[in-house]
Amino acid sequence: MIQNLLGLLNTFIEKYLYWFDIPKFNRIDFVEIIIIALLVYNILVWVKNTRAWVLLRGIIIIILFCLIAAVFQMNTILWIVARTINMAVIAVVIVFQPELRRALESLGRKNFLTSIFNFDTQKDQVRFSDKTVAEITKASFEMAKVKTGALIVVEQNMMLTEYERTGIMLDSLVSSQLLINIFEHNTPLHDGAIIVRGDRIVSATCYLPLSDNMGLSKDLGTRHRAAVGISEVTDALVVVVSEETGNVSVAISGKLFRNLDAENLKRKLGFIQKHSIDTDKFRLWRRRQKHVQKTDETSGK
Fold it and tell me: Tens digit of pLDDT for each residue in 137-157?
């Protein structure tokens, strides 16, 4: 089909645009154009969704200023630009370092890479038992009733060893009683996050990176920003219990989903038992859940 399309395009060019020097397209050129278009589109989407968008506008202004200098033969300015261009490239890499790191980490978590290189060794394995799901859910809403703040990081494919080392090693089975005791006020382990790997709590009082996402609500505190922050740089699912409101929320892939009930939390934890959640899968799954809920409400009426 592609070959026929290219043939029609070349025929049109030869017949009607013979006066215009247009290079002939072959199959490889067509594929290259598609790849470059997709690459440029994804880069623009990535830039627009980060603070890099503001920095990029500043760079565009500088480039326009350089073009004006070139048009009006401002040789001194052009000489300065020529001498500083190498340092400018290095400076851009340094300024964009957090965004570039997140972009590369996001690229590494894409499904097409895991399917090609088979990085996902846990794809067909159950990460934790139904009992762990029930215990985390029970503990979260028991703590929510008395407004005890909690931060529970559930590991998926990416190992959280570097964050695990910032806390106190536990290696204990997950139970609602233990979770409640850990986050109880004025106890040695209540400050910070816990990390759950499989059916075990591997570490407590862990320090997590805070998100610098300006789109987060101003009424969210450090605990929620830490939840979003760790979900931005890893594929972990994070359960947050608010100390101020008692609401239970979930952070995944840099997105925060607030005010969940026990059934919703249990479904989300149940989903990642066998699946790796990224933002796209999570949104698709949520749309399906909303559709099922609307269908049930309509049937009930």
Answer: 999 999 999 999 999 999 988
Q: What's the count of helices (H) and strands (E) in the chain, helices before strands?
A: 12, 7
- Of 176, 230, 234, nearest in space to 206 by CA: 230
Residues 13 and 135 both lie in one domain = no
- Bridge partner residues of 203 (DSSP): 169, 195
State the CATH number of the domain containing residue 170.
Answer: 3.40.1700.10
Residue with tokens 């309509």: 298
Q: Taking a C-beta distance cutoff of 8 angstroms, is the pair 242, 256 a contact?
A: no
Cβ proximity of 246 and 223 under 8 Å: no
Range of the domain at 167: 130-300
CA gap 256, 223 in Å, rounded: 12
Give the amino acid at 31. Answer: V
CA 99 to chain centre: 11
Question: pTM to 2 decimals?
Answer: 0.62
